[in-house]
Amino acid sequence: MVLGIFTCGLNNLITTMKESQYCVVPLHSRPEMIKNCCILINSEWPRSETARLRTLNMSCDDFPTCLILLNGDRVVGHCKISLISSMSDSCFIESVVIDYERRSQGLGSILMQGAEEYVAKKGIKNIYLTTRGQEQFYLKNGYNICEPINLYGYTSFITSSPMTKEKARYIVSAGPPPPPMPINVKKPHLPIVSAKTYMVKKL
């Protein structure tokens, strides 16, 4: 049960849950936590420590920004926020992860609320993300399923029409086109299925 959210200095959000305190803060404001944050993310998506640390060290006030959820001096959550070059006043949230031992305690919602308050102060109006299997969590937190967005600066094809889960399953993900098929190789006759569900929340 969330008892309250309070602002504690610039970009710091302190949330009191029962007897424990949780803070959502920019990672670059707590550089001593970068190594622990790397361990947390790699526990979910293994990657070389060198590459992961390079990405985390790019966190800054002007985006991309990594936010961490702290319980005292322990990193229990992380998300990365980037601007979408093809859309104004919009950002993309990725790499949302909560410590495995702390899941199902409402911490994911605290992290998302902290991220939303952070970007709102930066003038962001729309938050986009992708998920695979966690649609219900994001729906509960006010996100809606939408059509894929273009994250790479090409023409955007967002529409305002409502998106159903059934429709979302058959959408090709945004991004550069795949390389051409080799000559004399038959293309498989399989349904085109989106690997991820795109979701949006308007602030």
What's the helix and strand layout?
Elements: E1 2-7, E2 13-17, E3 20-26, H1 34-44, H2 49-56, E4 65-71, E5 74-83, E6 90-98, H3 107-121, E7 126-131, H4 135-140, E8 144-146, H5 165-168, E9 197-202
Parallel strand pairs: 6-7
Antiparallel strand pairs: 1-2, 2-3, 3-4, 4-5, 5-6, 7-9, 8-9
Helix pairs in contact: 1-2
Summarize the structure.
The chain is 22% helix and 29% strand. The chain is α+β, with helices and mostly antiparallel strands. Residues 25-164 form the N-acetyltransferase domain.
Give an overview of the whole structure:
With 203 residues, the protein is an alpha+beta fold. It has one domain (2-202): Gcn5-related N-acetyltransferase (GNAT) (Aminopeptidase), CATH 3.40.630.30. It contains five helices and nine strands, in the order βββααβββαβαβαβ. Helix 1 crosses helix 2 (49-56).
List keywords for this structure.
Aminopeptidase, 9 strands, 22% helix, globular, alpha+beta, disordered N terminus, single chain, 9-stranded mixed beta sheet, 203 residues, 5 helices
Distance between the termini: 23 Å
Q: Tally the structural domains.
A: 1
* Number of helical segments with 4 or more residues: 5
Total beta strands: 9
Q: Please state the CA-atom Rg, rounded to the nearest Å.
A: 18 Å
Structural class: alpha+beta
Which fold name corresponds to the CATH topology? Answer: Aminopeptidase
Helix-strand topology string: EEEHHEEEHEHEHE
Domain N-acetyltransferase: 25-164
GO molecular function: acetyl-CoA binding; N-acetyltransferase activity
Protein name: N-acetyltransferase 6 isoform X1
